[in-house]
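Why does residue order matter? Because the sequence determines the fold. Keep that principle in mind as you read this record.
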Amino acid sequence: DDCEALLLPPLCDKVSPIAASCSASATLGTAACSTCPWPSFLDFVVDCSACVAVVATCMSITLREHLLAAASLAFVCAAVWRLYLQSLTRCGGGGARPTLPYTCGWIAADGVELCVVATLHVSPRAPRDVEAAVEALRPDAVFIEIDDDRLNEMRAAEALPRPGDLQPIQVSLGGCAISVLAQRAFWNADAEGERISGELCFDEGDAQCMSLTGQPAGSKCHFPGRLALASRGGSFALKAHVAARAGATAVLVVNDRPQLPPTMRLGESSLLEDLWLAFRTGRSGFPPIPVLLLPQAEGERILSACRRREPAVSAEFRILPDEFPRTSLRRRICQSLGLLLSGVGVLYGIIQCFAVDLGEEFIIAEKAAHEQGAPCICIDVDINGFCRNVFSAVALTPNNLWRSLRAWVALPRIVIQVMFPSRDRVDSLGVVLLHSASCRLRTWIVVLLAGVSAVAAVASMLWFCGGGSTGALSGVGVAPTHGRGEVQGVVMLLIEFYVMPRLYEAVASARDEAMYQRIATEVARRRARRLVVVVGVAHANGILQRVATRGLRPMAEAEVVR
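Structure:
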């Protein structure tokens, strides 16, 4: 079941000897490596002491009166610290480190050189930094923070279908046989290997094959056991449903333009369009029969033959296998809920609505890797894994409560490490400023709007949860009814304090661990010695820290609970 698969918790890894000795993580949301859920007592005591000191200082009268001066002094010290680190690098303090952009981190472990390129996905500087890093390191493999499905979608947005992606069809026109290469719908592979053949039939009364009310007036065509021929127009999925109800075994659509559409597969649509189609057809699954789009010239020739009622106008083809991603409507709904709950769906949805270039560095990384003769490997979790991480992270369990508390206690240490990064870490604050400076004003406005909207969406859901919890508490007499507003505010604050670190762990820390494991596995399999990893700035230090503490040796298969 699609929904059940999304709600299952992510795979759990046993602790390897390497991971057992790892130090506390410097990432908000997890105080230790994901394989070490319980940090050492000393780390916890140090973080608690620092947290108490920071809170006491912030509450002091002196600091409140001179808050602006204290913040200015902190930023000046942070700038001086960065200048000092740069002077060490220029004086040769970087050792064997190659010359890389400032946005890159570099580490050598287990005989492997690894360069992490920290990016902002909307930054025009990110693709240039990726090209520079690949050129400087000349890697044996390039890893990108994206999964195969999303990379295919990005390729499809700007690529014409390749001849190898087209479906060959043998068409018989009287005594003449022609071969046609047609564009496939993404659901065709559900009938992989099936041979489909039969007479072609064109319905003049419903030329586009879009009527769900049965045979329209003027229709003289019946489809049982035959292949429906239709003109282009409207939804390809709806054509398949209409033709299947009339008994057709496949739909061949005649293109009305000289070129095939610039997409890898036909039939992809938005969630709202798919919901409307499911409402109209009463089916939530994929269309029941395959759909193929014929090139305009060959399609018009076949259509003319059918209109002239020429005898023996037929077609035959065997459905090709296809690895193009297919996601059912039920799973897309669950994925959308997970993305909405985390705020990621709102954030990227608004950015895409305003046509802001997003993730261009991944396409550039793939091209640069191919120019170097190196493989480009996707290492991020897919959307299903991401949703499982979100649902598992926000579940109210003792372990999650402890992790959330631990994250807030570690916050002062995290802030200090962001303000004063060590030489072996990526300067997250500096990278964000550099990438932001390269963005246009329009991009800034769109990202700001998207961020505010994402926060508002998550806050609205938390407020709804707080209202429900307050009502339940009032109903059992735990909370007073006259002060319900104040109680709801307190409940919402507690929910926010719990959920915020948990969402960060699902969005960042859990993915850091998954990407690190994939890198280590690929390094062992390919015996690569020079690597470039292209990830968002939020993941760069998480990966570098795991490589520094645990090396690039993957967990043995025997240690992984499947």
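Confidence is low (pLDDT under 50) at residues 1-39, 216-220, 556-562.
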